[in-house]
Amino acid sequence: MRAAVSFAVISAAEADLERVAAEIRRRVADLDGPLAAVLADLPAADAQRVRAAGARRDAAVADLCTVLDQLGTALGAARDAGLPSTYTRPGWS
Q: Which DSSP helix (H) or strand (E) runs through 70?
């Protein structure tokens, strides 16, 4: 089996990955304002637990966005390297 790949498809995928990572970052950042208002009304121990959960969320989002950025970089490198227009995966016929 052969998979056709074009420079336009690779460029579109790279742009999509960049867009998705930016959108994830934006949406998570948008949560911080409303969350701060909620934290102000919580008892200190509860607020600390929410802050800890938020830190874990932020770390997970950063990891996810790093992977998306790396995939986009790899796609850009593949495009720039001028990969052939078709690729046969080993084991495919």
A: helix 44-80
Q: Over the stretch 38-84, which tens digit does the pLDDT of each residue have?
A: 999 999 999 999 999 999 999 999 999 999 999 999 888 888 887 66
pTM score of the predicted model: 0.74
d(CA 55, CA 26): 16
63 within 8 A of 25, measured Cβ to Cβ: no
* Alpha carbon distance 37, 47 (integer Å): 11
21-27 — which CB contacts under 8 Å span 24+ positions? 21/64, 21/65, 21/68, 21/69, 21/72, 24/61, 24/64, 24/65, 24/68, 25/61, 25/65
For residues 35 and 58, what is the distance between their CA atoms, to the nearest angstrom?
A: 13
Separation between Cα atoms, residue 55 and residue 78, nearest integer Å: 34
89 touches 3 (CB < 8 A): yes
